[in-house]
Amino acid sequence: MNASTPRQSPAEGDQDAELLSRTARDLPTGRHQFHKEHLMARIQQLQTSQQEEHGGRPGGPARTRRLRLPRPAVTLPALAAGLAAAVVAGVVVNDGGGVADGGVATGPGLTTEIGAASSEGVPQLLDRISLAAAASGHPTVEPGQYVYVESRTADTFLRTVGGTTTLASHEPHRRQVWRSADGTKGRLVDPAVNDSAEGETLSLPDEQGNTPVADLNSPSYDYLAGLTTDPDKLLATIYKETRGMGNTPDQQAFTTIGDLLGESYPPAELYSALFRTAAKIPGVVVVDDAVDAAGRHGVAVARLDEASGQREEWIFDRKTHVFLGERVVQVKRNTGTEALLKPGTVVFTSAVLKRAVVNGIKETPTASQEG
Questions:
Q1: Residue 42: in which H helix or E strand, if any?
Q2: Is residue 323 a contact partner of residue 265, using CB atoms and an 8 Å limit?
Q3: What integer is the mean pLDDT of 78-99?
Q4: Whether residue 96 has pLDDT greater than 80
Q5: What is the CA radius of gyration of the chain?
Q6: Which of 353, 366, 364, 1 is nearest to 152 (CA)?
Q7: In which element (H, E) is residue 19 found?
């Protein structure tokens, strides 16, 4: 989670705030340049319209919010993707009744003890994780098949009601994602995004007939299958494709790899190579104890984003080194409104429960299909 540069948000408009709050929970922060220009033009258009409605002048001062959002790696089509692409660091809030919460209960901010971090043993741990990944093997996703990922997620966000901003959270809940091998078909079922049991489509093309090309920011299985597995070349590719995103190139590279661990199913050789690639990123540390959204304890590979004061942690089983999930924890104090995100706040947490290849949308895996 990165890209904490302030952006202007159209939070004054209830309809647009609701759209942003829904899409923000679907998109990874700091990963998107796609549709950025479209978003900024839309924000300017909204601000101009709102100012004119209230007798103001276009171009006048607007409120700026710099909030943090969770970032499961699923890209929604059309304007939703564009809007969330450049909304940085938070679920959008508004003064007219808060965010759209879907079918998930909300509560106070999530908290945890901050685990001690050390740079010692990072290469050795990532090497063991890489070897375990190589031994596990991943099935090939054939045309017409879908990657299915079921997880448990929760998040903490800043919420403004009646001019007062407080911390709130979506309680841990089930999330299901289906993505076709080529990335053009899919479905998301997440009550924090849409309280319909049917969820919503992720299929492309969008309403304008555009089919975005898969890349590291929105990868399909087919795209991942074409990536190099050489750690040096892979890291160079990541730096190149994510140039200008995030707070620093190193943090963005770490985040990009983390996104691939969560809601994708990389081919076996690439999956193993991702960990050897992460070992080459400066600033990576080991956190001796971390807990995923399902309450499972493990050891974490982590990196601190100095700009936001948040640490992204990839959590692994201590014995088998299987990836369990991830979380983002506030470990340093901020100023302004973000000071509400005190050290120990869990900004985002997830636990991967099932990952498999299935033959259709809405199909869930049998025990033999699970990876």
A1: helix 36-53
A2: no
A3: 35
A4: no
A5: 20
A6: 353
A7: helix 14-24
